[in-house]
Structures are given as structure tokens and as C-alpha cells.
UniProtKB/TrEMBL annotation:
Signal peptide per UniProt: 1-23
Pfam family, one: Barwin
Protein's UniProt name: Sodium Bile acid symporter family isoform 1
Ranges in a coiled coil: none
Domain Barwin: 24-145, 150-275
Domain of life of the source: Eukaryota
Amino acid sequence: MERSVMSLSSLLVLACLVGYGTAQSVQNVSAHWVDFSAKENDWDMNKANDVYCKIYDADKPYEWRSKYNWTNIGDLAGFSIDEACGKCIHVTNRATGDETTVRIVGPTGHGLELDKPVFDQLDSDGQGQVVGHLIVSYKFVDCNPTPPGPGESNVRADYSKDYNPIENDWTYPSHAECAIKDGGKPLEWRKRHGWTGYCGKYKTFNPEDNCCKCLKVTNTDTKDSVTVRIMDTCGGEVEALVLDYETAFKPIDTDGKGYEAGHLTVDYEFVECDDDVLVYSQ
């Protein structure tokens, strides 16, 4: 099996928990290429080159085996390699911002070993080919995320006075789930919409999956509505949303009954954020 040359001096692995369970993020790690020849072998793990996880996953359906390109992984984020087989990570080239999701099919000593086609996909500027590796970040993600649907009807929306975006110049609080992903975005972006924590029907085990998405929330009693941006998670025991009081809850609680009750009954739907009207460098 052909491999790119490893450069140990280029390895810097920093693992930090960014969410719940398997929502683990690893920053600034080397990704080399390896020739599994998955596509050439019709995604057959028994025929492809050196696929460790074939002992668990070779009998999975073709649609499962071919859904994502493959990778070996060094930092298992607390899993054993047997537990990691078949899980997915979302990989981002730190230099270009190119990103994709890949499936774990085996271990490696350091960083990642990406199948050559997905290495080339991430190496859009060609520098990975030149130096023999990429510097990437990755996080564990759901291999089968539930796509956002039309939303939900007649669900509970609580409120929070802890975010205080107006008083804090729309700075994401450090405890907000989306602070790492979105807290550094421009002020114009952060203040474009009111804020909400989300724990509704379409939540995943990786709360970051819903970060920065927008919802149109409608008070079922008054029919007032507001567009809000997801910037946190919430408990979800009974509520679907936890709306920031000033920027999201109060604007649709026009009769004051929600504040009296401590919550509103709302409908919500996923909508476009219209961020393309903002011009900024990210």
C-alpha cells in the first residue's frame, strides 16, 4: 500500500471536548494519504488494501460502505479502534478551508491517513501533494444526521436572560455550545438575528450540527413571529427552544402572557438566514 512520507516534526495534536459524547474535536494534526483503492474495488473492504475494520463492516450494505470516503485515524478520542470502526469524522484543511466527512476504517500511529481521492479533494491548492501531508482539524460527527425538516408545531419555548447579547455587544458567552464555531464571526453576522438555544426534534449527539442555522418562531396565540439563530443547545426535557429574552422571546410575547407563564407555545420552521447580504471577510 502506497503511503505519503510521514513527518513527525509536523505533528501537533490538540484534543479538546467541544460537546457531548463523541463530539470530540482535534486541531492541527497531519493528514497523509494512503491508497485503499476503495472505489476501484467497488467499496469491497475485503478486496481493498489493508482495511482493518473489514472484520466488523465488510458485510454492511454497499450504500453504507460507499457513502463516505475512508480514513485511518490515530487519535481515537477515547474509543478503542474496534469501537471507532465505522464512525465518521468531519475533516477541514486548515490552509484552504476545504472540508468533507469520512468514515473510519482502521488505525494509524499518528494523525489521519486519508484515502488518496479524498486527500486530493481537500488539497485544492496542491500544497499537500508538494509537502506530503495536510494540516487538518477534525471532529466526530453523526454519519446519518437528521436533515432539517419543516420544524415542529405546538412546542414549548422557554426563555433565558443569561445570554445578554445587547449588553455584551453580541459576544457569544463561553458556555454557549456554538461559541467555538461561530463566536469569532463578525459583529454584523452575530447581531443579524435574535438568539436561541435548540433542543428540538432535529438535535443530534453533536450539538454543533445545528449551529448558525436559523428558525422562524411563531407564537401560536398572538401569531407574532421572529427569526432567530441557533447559538446554543438546551436541556430538552420539556422544551424545544430556549429563546434569548430580549432578542427572541419578548418580540413575540406581545401580550405578556408568555412571561407570566414562564414559556410560550410556538411553531417553528428552519429558514434561510439571508447571510449572503452581508459582505465580510471570514
